[in-house]
Amino acid sequence: MSKPTNIEVLDKQSMLGNYAKAVAGMLPLPGAKATGLPDRVLRIENVRIDIDNLADYNHVCGLRLRDTVPVTYPFVLSFPAVMNLLVAKDFPLPAMGMVHMANNIEQIKPISVSDVLTIDVHAADLREHRSGLLVDLITEITVEGELVWRQASTFLRKQRTSLSDEPRPERTDSAPGADGRVANTTLKVTPALISQYAEVSGDRNPIHISKVGAKAFGFPSVIAHGMWSSAAVLGIIEGRIPDSVDYSVEFGKPVVLPAKVKVYADKSANGWSLALRHPKKGYTHLTATVTAR
């Protein structure tokens, strides 16, 4: 699917109250829900890096402050536009209850803390999955008209589809740590830490900050943000990530808080393989690859 040509520029007022809209979207309201994806791009112009916010982000994710932003930080910058798209009346799926399945980042060149950014977000590739419907939220960031960063965030809306009765494929675990070796490091994840991340990132989804909200969606307690995990796991190879890099993440079982998680890393010829695992049961919360472009 090609990028839509219809561009809608967002202002600050239009980016407020999105979680209230998301909750309202759960209610049975009159009128038919859209069946196709919005044919438009949401744009945020003249975005400047807030150094205090960046410092707080790096601190809560266990990363060092530099003159360029971490490869995962632009997700925070684009999040207001992503939420605006998800809660819009012409978006076919309800925002609340969407599950972040995967995230693929292409960093063409690092983003400097002094860069002035233009952020474009659009939806693409609504498709069936055995567990529901998948959709990609595409983010593109340019500096003076040059594409520097691109991301595809894949979300799942759980429901029955024509693929629901297909047999589940066998899965083999070849990610780092599958051999039972000692982890490279351990991360302690607390509700307080994740509440801090929610404030820094703007992602205040109730499943991350409210036990009641988490239980309403079937979780025993609050869970960590997938994008916190994808940032925190990079701390193990910080300083060794290429300037031009692809970072691909698949999310496994959620990190239910409080928790301790094991981090594993394997070096390859052109990058790294990473995994975040449960310390006792060994299943993966996250698997990822970091590959030089």
Automatic annotation (TrEMBL):
Segments traversing the membrane: none
Source superkingdom: Bacteria
A Pfam family the protein falls into: MaoC_dehydratas
InterPro entries: HotDog_dom_sf (IPR029069), MaoC-like_dom (IPR002539)
Signal peptide feature range: none
Annotated region described as Disordered, given as residue ranges: 159-181
Domain called MaoC-like: residue spans: 184-269
Basic and acidic residues bias: start-end ranges: 163-173
Family per similarity comment: Belongs to the enoyl-CoA hydratase/isomerase family.
Name of the featured protein: MaoC family dehydratase N-terminal domain-containing protein
Species per Swiss-Prot/TrEMBL record: Lolliginicoccus lacisalsi
